[in-house]
What does this fold into?
Amino acid sequence: MSPRTPIGHDLIEQLGALEAVDAPAKAVAKFVRSAKAPAKVNEALSGTWLGHPVHPLLIVVPMGSWISAVVLDWLGGKEAETAADLLLGAGLAGAVPTVATGYADWSDSEPANDRVRRIGIVHAASNGTAAVLIARRGGRVYALADTCVHREGSLAQGELVGDCVKCPLHGSVFRLSDGSVEQGPAAYPQPVLEARVRDGSIEVRAPQ
It folds into this structure.
């Protein structure tokens, strides 16, 4: 009997052999190493101060928050909407340092291992580029891309102002319904996604 391999093993092996991602991955890793070159920044991201890598610990913050939000949406009814919204926001806020520490760990490891470079960049891209702002207003659920079109601030760390969201970096204000700019300095509308509640879960997809 041939030995069994874990589910997903073949896919991981294929990613590890994907030479096409080497050039962009090396460029990203070089940029990350440069950004965290100051000793205090590097130690903060790597977990020197804690005596343990930070990234594995932070993963539970967005995952736990989002899973809890889904459970509240599913079982909590309207009374749980505020708590679910807070959990969604906490997950998005926690995703920022989680992604940063993940990139930092990967950038230190990739020069010595081609498989680490290739698998890591695919993992980072699939997890770090899909952040979405979810907001409820007047019984409706809205979804906007979380990264501000102006200077890439996280809208999840901003504030809701009526039927709009205000970016925490430079104060751009976008309407939740269509992403239109209500107040600059942003010059372009914020990308909007389609959102709905189905069987107690929030579903988001690109506009059709």
